[in-house]
Design brief:
Order of helices and strands: HEHHEEEEEEEEHEHEEHEEH
Number of strands: 14
CATH topology of the largest domain: Alpha-Beta Plaits
Structural class: alpha+beta
CATH superfamily of the largest domain: Pseudouridine synthase I, catalytic domain, N-terminal subdomain
Shape: elongated
Oligomer: single chain
């Protein structure tokens, strides 16, 4: 039986989209990263380099990123990975180290929602839904993240109170957060954050001369890795995807 390909309507072909959203929706990267690529002159529309933010395009336009043609996304994919140690949270690594895409096998071009340090384990979401990824990472939506950490020495109540209030230094600022110290072992601390910054937890503790020996993200936006071993992954259920969209105003 011959497969009949559904043609896009004239209205769909002529509809305009913001360039960064079109790139994100294609699964190449997030909207923020798309803006960086546009400004860097790595995006072309119908053979012409475009570096102006806010540019609009049509579905019928020929768009390339770094010389690679992109097209509208056909299927949205949402994956939950229980990230193991010694794995980079990027789609590729110039040093040839293992990345999360060496673990997650999918034909869709997905990317991680945010990053976990190489030796940080636990919840990591991957998707080709650029709009949802962008919102989940945006401070505006205050997406809750829970981490469990083990320190090199017991955490004092004084240090915990100062970390919880937020830290401001010349080169780093953390937002207020919640800390729970294990009453049986004061080197074990649970941290609840609502904004993600690079190496934030390690920087917070290092400021008070603590060394983070172990770090695991146990929850992100209400999603946990319960039932998944380290290095295992699964596709999110419809209810979980709807929950994420509701959190970010996309439902």
């Amino acid at each position: 039986m011959q497969k009949i390909k559904k043609q896009k309507s004239k209205e769909e072909k002529n509809k305009y989209f913001r360039l960064n959203k079109f790139i994100a929706d294609s699964g190449v990267c997030s909207r923020r990263k798309a803006d960086d690529l546009i400004v860097a002159g790595k995006v072309t529309i119908n053979g012409r380099v475009v570096n102006k933010l806010g540019t609009k395009v049509k579905a019928s336009d020929f768009i390339t990123v770094d010389g690679n043609p992109i097209k509208s996304r056909t299927k949205l994919v949402y994956i939950l990975l229980n990230k193991p140690k010694n794995t980079i949270s990027t789609t590729s690594d110039e040093k040839g180290r293992n990345t999360v895409l060496d673990i997650v096998r999918t034909r869709s071009r997905v990317f991680p929602i945010g990053r976990l340090d190489r030796n940080t384990t636990g919840v990591l979401l991957l998707t080709n839904d650029g709009e949802l990824a962008n919102r989940l990472m945006h401070p505006k939506y205050q997406i809750e993240r829970i981490y469990k950490t083990r320190l090199d020495k017991p955490l004092t109540e004084k240090s915990a109170s100062r970390i919880a209030a937020g830290i401001k230094t010349e080169d780093f600022q953390s937002s207020p957060c919640e800390l729970l110290i294990d009453i049986k072992d004061n080197t074990k601390v649970t941290i609840v954050l609502r904004e993600g910054k690079n190496h934030e937890i390690k920087k917070m503790f290092e400021h008070f001369h603590y060394d983070v020996k172990k770090l695991e993200r146990t929850m992100f936006a209400g999603i946990t890795v319960r039932g998944l071993r380290r290095g295992e992954y699964r596709h999110l259920k419809n209810a979980e995807v709807n929950h994420l969209k509701k959190l970010t105003g996309l439902s």
